[in-house]
Known about the structure:
Blueprint: E1 14-19, E2 24-27, H1 34-42, E3 59-62, H2 64-80, H3 84-97, E4 110-115
Antiparallel strand pairs: 1-2, 1-4, 3-4
Helix pairs in contact: 1-3, 2-3
Amino acid sequence: MLIAAGQDGPVGISVHVKEYTDKTVAKLDWRGDVNRLCAVAATDAVRYPLLSGVDDHDDTYFNARQCVRLEAELRLLAELSAEPEVVGAAEAVLRLTDLMQPAPGRPHHRLLVFSGD
Length: 117
């Protein structure tokens, strides 16, 4: 979710997949708060080492190999969380990580980007 400051609240973390040519392939389709997802992960950096490292004020990049581990973290967080906001955000980001996997006709070099405000 990305909201301009001063309108409906603070700017949040947006997430998208891009190719190394800088072409955006897909953007997060979740209207909730990705910041909350990352904040919950940050409370347990041992269990969620990648998610806990997302910078809410800058860009954080994950390549296809890192996304394999990130997917496991997202699934675990969605399974253990009692917060619908966290579960929804995790599931939405998981849909983007699917675009990171090799597929026929798909460029091999893609990045999953968490863009902080």
